[in-house]
Design goal:
Elements (H helix, E strand, L loop, with lengths): L13 H12 L3 H8 L6 H7 L11 E9 L2 E8 L5 H12 L5 E5 L3 E9 L4 H10 L1 H9 L3 H5 L3 E10 L6 E9 L6 H19 L2 E8 L6 E8 L7 H16 L1 H21 L4 H11 L10 E5 L5 E8 L7 H5 L1 H10 L4 H24 L3 H16 L4 H14 L4 H13 L1
Antiparallel strand pairs: 1-2, 3-8, 4-6, 4-7, 5-6, 8-10, 9-10
Helix pairs in contact: 2-13, 4-14, 6-8, 9-10, 9-14, 10-11, 10-14, 15-16, 15-17, 16-17
C-alpha cells in the first residue's frame, strides 16, 4: 500500500488490512501485534492510569483511507463504536483527492492558564498593575519548567480581563504558555499555582481558581478542501449541501447535530492517539459559541466553478508528550501510522478528519438521507448480535435492508430460520 487510496479495502480480511497498513506505515511485527490485541494495555499499566481499576475495555480500531493532507498520503487510525463513521470519512477523502485533498495549518501550541483575582477595589487599576509586572510574572512561571523553556516553550505573554459576574467584578489573568508537543495541562496549572502569591501581592486581591482553560483559542487548527461538483453528484447536490449548512449556521438545534457529525471524525482519532476527548469536546463547543450563539464549526461555500469548498477552524489541544499517548502501546502505534512528529501535525490531521466527516454527513442528508447508509451497517451489527456469521450473516443483512425491517427481533427470526435448514 504505497498510497492511502485503496480500492476494495473493506473487502479484505482484518489480517490483510493490518498487513497493508503495516507496509504503508512501516510497522514492526510487534507493533502489528499491539494493534491486533485487545490486551495491549496490560493490567499493571491500566491500574496506574486511573483509580479503582477493575479491568479494561476494548473498542474497534479502524483506519480512514484515501487522505491527501498537505500533499502527503495519510492513513488515519480511528477508534469508535459507531458504524459508518470510518467509511464516511474515507469516502469524503476519496472525493476530495481529485482536487488535491486537504490543506491544513495551525496557529501554534499556546495554552491558557487562568488566574482568578477577587476582592479588588479597583479592578481596572489591578489589571494595569499585573501588566506592568508582566516580565516578572513570566520569569516566575518559567522557573517552574526549565526543560520546557530550554526547548523553546514556556510563558510567552500575559493578558488580563475584567469581567462582571453575579459575585461582583473579577480580574482574570491569562498566562499564554507555549506547551510545544505536550497537551500541557500539568505545565500551565503548575505555573498558575506558582505565580498566584505574587499576583496577590501586587494587586492586593485574593487569588482563588488557578486552572487552564479548554477554550484554547490560541491553539487553533484549520483544514480546507474542495470537492468538484461532478464528483459529488452535480451542482444541485452542492446547492442542497449549502442549504443544509445555512440551516446549521442559523439554528443551534441543527448546529448541535451538525457539529456532532464533525466530532464523529475528530474524537475517534483523539481516542486512538491517547488524547483527552473531554478537552477537545469542550473546546470545540465553546468555540462554536464564541460570538454569543452556538453555530457551525465549519464553513461551506461554492466557488466560481460551482464546486463545494469546505473549511474548519477550531481549538485542538492534543499532544504527543505525556499522558496516555506515552503509556498506551496502541496509542503509540497509532501515532506511528499517522507519521506525525509534532502535536501541531496531529491536530491538523484531526481537523481534516472532522471536515471530511461533516462533508459526508451533509451529502447524505442532502441526497439519500442519513438512514440509508446507516441501515446496512446497523443490520450487520444486529445480525452479528444474534450469532450470524459468513453467508448467513450476509443473507440476513440483505433481507432486512431490502424489507426495511432492521430490528433485533427480526434478525433473530431470520437467523432461527437459517439455522433450522
Amino acid at each position: 500500500m504505497k498510497t492511502s487510496s485503496y480500492s476494495g479495502f473493506f473487502k479484505l480480511s482484518v489480517e490483510e488490512r493490518r498487513n497493508e497498513i503495516a507496509e504503508f506505515s512501516g510497522l514492526t511485527e510487534e507493533e502489528k501485534a499491539i494493534i491486533a490485541s485487545a490486551d495491549t494495555l496490560d493490567m499493571d499499566k491500566a491500574d496506574h492510569m486511573i483509580e479503582n481499576v477493575i479491568g479494561r475495555f476494548a473498542l474497534p480500531m479502524g483506519v480512514a483511507i484515501n487522505f491527501i493532507i498537505n500533499g502527503k498520503d495519510v492513513v488515519i487510525p480511528m477508534v469508535t463504536e459507531e458504524p459508518s463513521v470510518v467509511a464516511a470519512c474515507s469516502n469524503a477523502a476519496k472525493m476530495a483527492r481529485p482536487s488535491g485533498g486537504f490543506t491544513v495549518s495551525s496557529s501554534g501550541n499556546v495554552m491558557i492558564a487562568q488566574i482568578q483575582v477577587l476582592n479588588v477595589n479597583t479592578p481596572f487599576a489591578a489589571k494595569s498593575m499585573i501588566l506592568e509586572k508582566k516580565e516578572e510574572i513570566i520569569r516566575i512561571c518559567n522557573e517552574k519548567d526549565p526543560v520546557l523553556v530550554n526547548f523553546g516553550g514556556g510563558v510567552k505573554d500575559v493578558e488580563v480581563r475584567v469581567i462582571d459576574t453575579i459575585a461582583g467584578p473579577m480580574v482574570i489573568a491569562h498566562l499564554l504558555v507555549d506547551t510545544l508537543d505536550a497537551m500541557g495541562a500539568n505545565a500551565v496549572n503548575t505555573m498558575a499555582e506558582a505565580v498566584a502569591p505574587y499576583i496577590e501581592e501586587i494587586t492586593g486581591g485574593s487569588v482563588e481558581l488557578r486552572i487552564l482553560s479548554n477554550l484554547a483559542d490560541h491553539r487553533l487548527v484549520r483544514a480546507r478542501a474542495t470537492w468538484k461538483k461532478e464528483d459529488i453528484g452535480g451542482e444541485e447536490v452542492v446547492d442542497k449541501m449549502l442549504n443544509a449548512y445555512a440551516f446549521a449556521k442559523a439554528d443551534p438545534y441543527r448546529a448541535a447535530t451538525h457539529n456532532k457529525g464533525i466530532m464523529n471524525g475528530i474524537i475517534p482519532v483523539v481516542i486512538a492517539t491517547g488524547n483527552d476527548t473531554r478537552a477537545i469536546e469542550s473546546g470545540a463547543h465553546s468555540y462554536a459559541s464564541r460570538d454569543g450563539r452556538y453555530t457551525s464549526l465549519t464553513t461551506w461555500e461554492k466557488d466560481a466553478n460551482g464546486d463545494l469548498v469546505g473549511s474548519i477552524e477550531m481549538p485542538m489541544a492534543v499532544g504527543l508528550v505525556g499522558g496516555a499517548t506515552k503509556i498506551h502501546p496502541a496509542a503509540q502505534t497509532a501515532v506511528k501510522i499517522l507519521g506525525v512528529k509534532t502535536a501541531a501535525e496531529l491536530g491538523q490531521i484531526i481537523a481534516a478528519a472532522g471536515l471530511a466527516n461533516n462533508m459526508a454527513a451533509m451529502k447524505a442528508l442532502a441526497t439519500e438521507g442519513i438512514q440509508r447508509g446507516h441501515m446496512s451497517l446497523h443490520a450487520r451489527n444486529l445480525a452479528n448480535t444474534v450469532g450470524a456469521k459468513g453467508e448467513v450473516l450476509e443473507a440476513i443483512v440483505k433481507q432486512m435492508v431490502s424489507e426495511k425491517k432492521v430490528r433485533l427481533e427480526y434478525a433473530k427470526e431470520l437467523f432461527d430460520k437459517h439455522t433450522e435448514k
